[in-house]
Amino acid sequence: MFIQHWQSKVATLRCGFILLAASVSPAATVDFSRDIQPLLARNCFACHGPDHHERKADLRLDTPEAATAIRKSGRAIVTGRPADSLLIRRIEHADPEDRMPPADSGKSLSPAQRQLLRDWIEQGANYSGHWAFEQPVKSLASVPPELAATVHNEIDRFVVARLATEKLSPAKPADRTTLLRRLALDLVGLPPTPKDIDAFLADKSPQAYEKQVDRLLKSRHFGERFGRLWLDAARYADTDGYEKDKPRTVWFYRDWVINAFNRDLPYNQFIIEQIAGDLLPNPTQDQIVATGFLRNSMLNEEGGIDPEQFRMEAMFDRMDTIGKSVLGLTIQCAQCHDHKYDPLSQKDYYRLFAYLNNDHEAMPVVYTGEQLQAIQSIQSRIRQLETGLRKSLPDWRERIIAWERARPKDPEWIPLDIINIGNNAQRYEAMPDHSLLAGGWSPPRFTANFAHTNHLENITAIQIEVLTDPNLPGGGPGRGYDGNFALSELKLQVAPLTDPKKKTATSFARAAGDFDQPEAELPARFTDGTKNRRVTGPAALAIDGKTDTAWAADRGPGRRNQATTAIFELKQPIGTKAGNVFLFDLVQMHGGKNGNDYVTKNLGRFRVSATTASPPLVNPTPPSIQTLLNLRPEDRSTSQWEQIFSHWIATDPEWTDVAKELEGLRDQWPEGTTAYALNARSDVRPTAILKRGDWLKPGEEVLPGIPPFLNQLSPESPRSRLELARWLAADDSPTTARVFVNRIWQACFGNGLVRTPEDFGVQGEPPSHPKLLDWLAVDFMESGWSVKGLIRRIVTSATYRQSSHVTPKLLETDPYNHLLARGPRFRVDAEIVRDITLAASGLLNPEMGGPGIMVPAPEFLFKPPASYGDFPWFNDTGPDKYRRAVYTYRRRSTPFPSLTVFDAPPGDFSCVSRQRSNTPLQALTTLNEPLFVEAAQALARKTIAEGGAADAQRIKYAFRRCVGRVPASNETETILGLLERQRTRFANDAENAKLFAGEGPDESPSVDSPELAAWTAVSRVLLNMDETITKE
Amino acid sequence: MHPFDSSPNPDLLSRRWFLKDCGIGLGSMALASLLKEDARALSAESDPLAPRTPHFAPKAKRVIFLFQAGAPSHLDLFDNKPALTKYDGTLPPPELLEGYRAAFINPNSALMGTRFKFARHGQSGAELSELLPHLAGVADDLCIIKSMATDQFNHAPAQILMNTGHHLFGRPSMGAWSLYGLGSESRNLPGFVVFSTGTKGTSGGAGNWGSGFLPSTYQGVMFRNTGDPILYLSNPPGADRKLQRDTLDTLNQLNRGRFAKVGDPEIAARVNAYEMAFRMQSSAPELMDISGEPQHVLDLYGAGPGKGPYANACLLARRMIERGVRFVQIFHEAWDQHGNLTKDLTKNCKATDQPTAALIADLKNRGLLEDTLVIWGGEFGRTPMVQGGTNDGRDHHPNAFTLFLAGGGVNAGTTLGESDEFGFNVVRDRVHVHDLHATLLHLLGFDHTQLNHRFQGLDMRLTGVAGELVKKIYS
After folding, report:
1. What is the pTM of this model?
2. Residue A1003 DSSP label
3. Residue B474 in contact with partner chain A when CB distance is under 8 A
4. Contact residues, chain A, for B454 at CB < 8 Å
């Protein structure tokens, strides 16, 4: 039961529809999925449903077999005989103690509901499957002849047929101006310009409206509007969310979504690429970027966590996201137990989970289109040069073999399985190749302490290999945002095993790396607050006793993310057979000041080894080449030979000139960006059913599989993520198309045909127009899953084009417009509120794509105590701040205030339906927030400059920019009144006039402040009108 | 005058419905009083913040939650463990550590006795550390729960659990639930106000006071400690209150005209929202201006312009409660003493002990304590085992910790529950976070299993599928 207030009214009304439908026609057949299933689900299934753990009295009412089974006490349902059915006897029991549902459950059945159950049993207790789990089929609705004229396309037939049964008729069409504004706000999220409106009004052709639909569907702003809706479902944000809430570079995914809508990527392909684009044959960069969808989960890297716990939390979030956004099912309850209402067992949940549980949390380097072109031309130039050189040297392979033979042998390195003994804020996973993979918090300046116990003697040198790993930024080898690392100092102490406290410091004589990075100062963002000159450079900097200098191996963009090695030769051999403890300090002081933003260069994955070889030791070969050299010459592929060739010409003095030229080319390689993506592991990670959803309590192991009540896979299907993706987007999925069609409907009409867009299960609301939903879903699939086609279908319907004016009577009959006897009218989404303001004032900068814009925001939001730590929010004061709100940087823990206040979700979890609140804080924002005030000032300037000479003309000009239509005479008068009052006031208050009017760009001295201020007051009112931020 | 009286097309709207259900008639421009009005006249139909009646008569009508984020050490403040002192420096019994996971330390670290003296206070004999001398003065008003337990031992998930009943983001906070259930008594201020007064922000961030799947109207509104208390409260440069009034009058007239034409009640709601915004512009600064408080009150809290933000926030919490704010939550993130425990705990108590005690005393003086629930506590406790090279720190500990309540119908002068001799596990009257939530909702007049909101096909509630009433707290 709900507590009595406005929310409960909504609920009552929803139920009211169901009951009304049944009670007006008592002879009508009771429909199981419309009338009975919701009743049983809400009142009975918690104890008598699919969840076998919670089942009471071993009675199950969700399947006909179980409900009609003979039991000791009788049958719960005796088909056709309500009086003999225990179900009816118990719900009608005179004794409240025995009456079902139990009083303490808080549930109850009304007399009308009991009657429904009686009628249903009387009529045969027919159980049909839940509507949403059956395939949608196209059917037709018959429209009474007197309403036939109101039908424009198939959609209208269903709507009008329903209206006829309610004795209602559709509203008249909206006027053209209102209609174009509605269409533009829906399709591109921007208001039409007065010029657009004039053109539409002047177009007398019968296809005038359709032409506008086509124009707007082709606009590149289309993707920004519908992309934003998907980004809600994808819980897109530019930071991690938890605690320090550090930045992440994921905007490539946002741009991919926008572009996907713009190029009308078929929705089934859209889903496949996001779930498994990386597994498609020869995936493009775009298809890999698309897998950022699942990676958008929040991440906790506070000190003290176990990274595996929060990987699992992210997995649960990914399941929830797929459930809500694609399947339209609330699957997350099955994380802990069998679903109470839908036939989804806990095992089904973990079988789905198993498809997703086998990936690296990858951060590949990605490039913009322009950069990709540049890379192509660099690569082809390099190929040309190298091919030419190889042609001129027919014996190049022999030469390389000779070079290999002449190289001194690498000594044998004994890997040391070192163990972390320090503060374990940064965590280490021991990898099978004896390396450690760092995870969790990445402290910016710290010393990592490790120990190794051994019986090695005469150790002459230590080797550190810093290795790549898909889980590191760009693949590593460091934890820096670009995969760089820096080791400030390496220290080694030795103690006898018998007396581990008796430590002796060792010292190193020499260091050598496979790559000598020229000494380079740290970039400004790495500042530690001191004035010290902090540099990175060759390996020797790790043993020079200075923590301001560090070993690094930044080979520059394109070659940065590869493994690298350095060896450190000891002055005196160490170790005795009797046993030793080696204590390593890896000093890593080359991070920034903050600690909350991950400006660090910590080692990502590394292996420490030792050797007893006598000096002198050679400089090591880069591990990527060493691996190839370890192959026998006859086993090397052509491309492997060519890689060795590239390395060889760089090392052989004979080719210095060519090497220089090649180096020059590689130096032009553009600096990429990282993205979040999925990257399938080669070794399968086992998945187990987790007891009560606790990651520490694995139970039975399961293999990937799909729930039995949805569309099926062929038994031969490979159990890969790609298979899951194809299953989700299959034509025979009962919910995928319905769910998406419903959300597009919701975007246009404010409510979905199913008002629980995240839940099409048994507990969800039944559709208001089931046949319409199915028709749209089937039509959507038949037209190749074209999103633009679907939207075109909806917006060209007469239903969509109705006037949104409402009479008190209709408001009373249908307050939420479920019957669609009028057009939609509601406040636009947060982003569009701001975009309208920017567009109306002429400030809007239509540039697309790129990193999130840090639009100026109150500084305190990014500093303690409002923020956990300092967050680097660089106010973008240039033209970028006028860009569309979809590009505003999304910080989860302190979300952008003027978007949040209008219900933009923070991206903490998947959201498929926004709240639509109407609050005083919104009023304060549009009245007083600096960017909104600036828009009022800009609109004032524009109005004076372009709006004509007379006040009334100017008012009309500004008014139209805000709402499209021409003001009525009484509206003009009202506004004139304000103008004149403020003119007088500001004429006597030049100082405030100047302040209020602000400073425009390139202000000419002739502009009169009081006049500007008065018009600013007018503009501010116009921008704040309900109509301005409302789609009518 | 009723702003819609001059509607040009009176037939279009049902005036009766509009007056009754939209409350537009109360969107009066006069600022008769900044203090609590008879807000009940506002109907719930269109105003999600209208006051509402709970399931049964409540003991508490409003809440002040002093959230000590970072997790204060129960062992050094409330839960005196002589055994810990006795075994200081020795390893804990191995059976205690079975299956135990710690955030940072190797659990098998030496025990650390408290460095602080404990004494009993008041008629109730509540045992408190010497760090809390002011709290000792109100000991007989407290209901101390020494048997709290949680599931999470990292800050962000534990804070989110304590504030929303679930360790993952996305659920409504306790304040949001309270507002959802009870509405707000204030028409000039937000119903759920949040302060952050610590050395940094909370680990859980805005999720700690979010509205989750409830309408966003119910989320906490953060008040700043300096400058505009509410974002964008001030008029833009050059605009004064007269201009703002003229702006709103013009705007109302235009919106009213539109309403007459299109008939959408949302327009009326927007007119009301603008009027409340206008009232907030004067009521919020008035509220924040503590200069008018008598000196003895300022002294009681240690508050005043430029004084400690926690002390000022405590005083402001009282002022808000007086003005009808339903739920005030002060987040003081300062208690994560992995090291430097002796010094930092002393410092934190110096900043918070006096204002906390003052708030309780002040509320009592004004007769507000009886129906105002004060909650003091963090997200978990600290380990009896030491952390840090200087032997002066404690790690995160979820198994046992202390929290106290005052007012709002709780049993004053009582101590509930007990932890074992090391303060490691609860041995009597365990109160899980869910149990605490169930009990808090009970005090506010709700059956926690019935205060729910339908989302994703489920009747979601603060206590999830758990939560037992802790009757010993209030009966």
Report:
1. 0.90
2. -
3. no
4. 2, 11
> What angle (nearest 5°) sits at the alpha carbon of residue A278, between those of residues A273 and A284?
80
**Strand B221-222, strand B372-377: pairing:** unpaired
Nearest to A764 among B211, B239, B457 (CB): B457
B269 touches chain A (CB under 8 A): yes
Nearest to A759 among B277, B309, B456 (CB): B456
Q: Please give the residue of chain A at the shortest CA–CA distance from B227.
A: A860
Is A289 among the domain residues?
no
Distance from CA of A655 to the nearest CA of B (A): 54
For residue A559, being part of any structural domain is answered with yes
pLDDT digits (tens, 9 = 90+) for A978-999: 999 999 999 999 999 999 999 8
Range of the domain at A990: 930-1031
Q: Rounded to an integer, what distance in angstroms lies between the CA atom of residue A254 and that of residue A618?
A: 48
Please, what is the end-to-end C-alpha distance for chain A in angstroms?
Answer: 35
Q: Do the Cβ atoms of A242 and B159 come closer than 8 Å? A: no
| φ, ψ of residue B202 in degrees (nearest 5) | -80, 160
Q: Output the DSSP codes for A55-86.
A: -STT---SSHHHHTS--TT--S--TT-GGG-H
Q: Which residue carries 């581990």 as its tokens?
A: A500
Judgement on whether residues A441 and A529 belong to the same structural domain of the protein = yes
Residues of A in contact with B48 (CB under 8 A): 6-7, 917
Q: Is A816 on the interface with B (CB under 8 A)?
A: no
Query: Does the distance separating the beta carbons of A868 and B457 come in below 8 Å?
Result: no
Judged by CB atoms within 8 Å, which residues 284-303 of B form the interface with A? none
Judge whether A916 lies within some domain.
no
Task: Quickly tell me which residue has 């009943």 as its tokens.
Answer: B165
Shortest distance, CA B169 to any CA of chain A (angstroms): 6
Q: Are A613 and A670 part of one and the same domain? A: no
- A299-324, pLDDT tens digit by residue? 999 888 899 999 999 999 999 999 99
Instruction: List all residues of chain A from 732 to 761 with a beta carbon under 8 Å from chain B.
Output: 756, 758-759, 761
Q: Are residues A452 and A395 in the same domain?
A: no
Number of Cβ within 10 Å of residue B276's Cβ equals 24
User: Does residue A299 belong to any structural domain of this protein?
Assistant: no
Q: Which residue reads 């549930």 in tokens?
A: A107
Cα B245 → chain centroid: 34
A848: helix, strand or coil: coil
Give the other-Cβ count within 10 Å of A134's Cβ.
Answer: 12
Helix (H) or strand (E) holding B384: strand B381-386
A970 touches chain B (CB under 8 A): yes
d(CA A640, CA A629): 9
Residue B34: strand pairing partners: none
Count up the domains in chain A and report the number: 4
pLDDT in tens, chain B (475 residues): 232 333 333 333 333 333 334 433 333 322 223 223 333 333 334 577 888 899 999 999 999 999 999 999 999 999 999 999 999 999 999 999 998 988 888 888 999 999 999 999 999 999 999 999 999 999 999 999 999 999 999 999 999 999 999 998 889 999 999 999 999 999 899 999 999 999 889 999 889 999 988 888 899 999 987 789 999 999 999 999 999 999 999 999 999 999 999 999 899 989 999 999 999 999 999 999 999 999 999 999 999 988 999 999 999 999 999 999 999 999 999 999 999 999 999 999 999 999 999 999 999 999 999 999 999 999 999 999 999 777 899 999 999 999 999 999 999 999 999 999 999 999 999 999 999 999 999 999 999 999 988 877 778 899 988 999 999 999 8
B398 in reach of chain A (CB within 8 A): no
Phi, psi angle pair for B333, to nearest 5°:
-90, 105
d(CA B230, CA B222): 7
Is there a contact between B155 and A915 if contact means CB atoms under 8 Å apart? no
A317:B104 CB<8 A: no
Considering the domain architecture, whether residues A83 and A27 belong to the same structural domain is answered as yes
